[in-house]
What does this fold into?
Amino acid sequence: VQLVESGGGLVQPGVSLTIYCAASGFAFSRYTMSWYRQAPGKERELVARIGAGGVTNYADSVKGRFTISRDNAKNTMYLQMNSLKSEDTAVYYCNARWIGDYWGQGTQVTVSL
It folds into this structure.
């Protein structure tokens, strides 16, 4: 089982960025997939979730700015982040949950001038 996040980086406030989670080794299409983030000194928090059927949920802090999606043919999940703010700075983690509970290693997103 492997979850590999990519696409993070340093961006300025107000811009957009898409991060990716490539999955392998499990039945991706059957799993609920989520993005979590953890900022320095803070607890890990749920950002967005997409169920096996495509239903999505978002944290209030990102609603209207972030969009979670998945491509089951490519075993990949995406998080499109628009209008980024400095408070979005964090390590973003990919999570897969159903029979198993799997985590990626994280990708750093830094929003700063």
